[in-house]
Amino acid sequence: MSEMLSCNLLPDLWQQILQQHWTYLETEESLQKIEERQKLEECLKDFLCLVPHSRKFLLPVTAYVLQKSILQADDSSAYKASIGFESISQYANNLFTKPWRKEYRVIKMYSGFYYHEIQSNLVESEKIFEAMGYKILPNRTLVLDGPICPDQVTNVSRDALAAFVECQILKQIFSGLTAMQVSSNWVDIFNFRSVHTGV
To answer: Which domain of life is it from (predicted)?
Structure first.
């Protein structure tokens, strides 16, 4: 019965996420934008707890980078991954709202911000930028030539935010298990969430 109920909720919830995401993107920097972000995160959390792992993200590259970052990084954690996905979402938001600004069209992968906020927290993060239309040059620079594709950029923005929320869920589970003095690690928690829907 609960599976049937969740299947009936999903189309409406997805439409709510799409609408809330547009509202968030279009809201000027203010207290209201923070409130819109909180509403969007709540919708995403509901969605991520209802769908199987294979349907959590629109773009396969988001699931790929999250999985690699949790399962294969030497010092992986949902804490680190959340920082990287938050930063990517912000890049996508900035690119969508201000596509003419050069600092959003040329990204030096060796810059302090990119290295510390994204590359050191996510494995193969550049693949998400490629999904936005960036090309990687040999000098470790990401470049976006020509006009942006609004759909690609907003899909990355929303997916990166969904991955951020998924990391928040993983962190909450980890904290709960730690409080109960249950030994666990990020790989076990990620794998459990990957197999079980509704947790």
So the answer is: Eukaryota
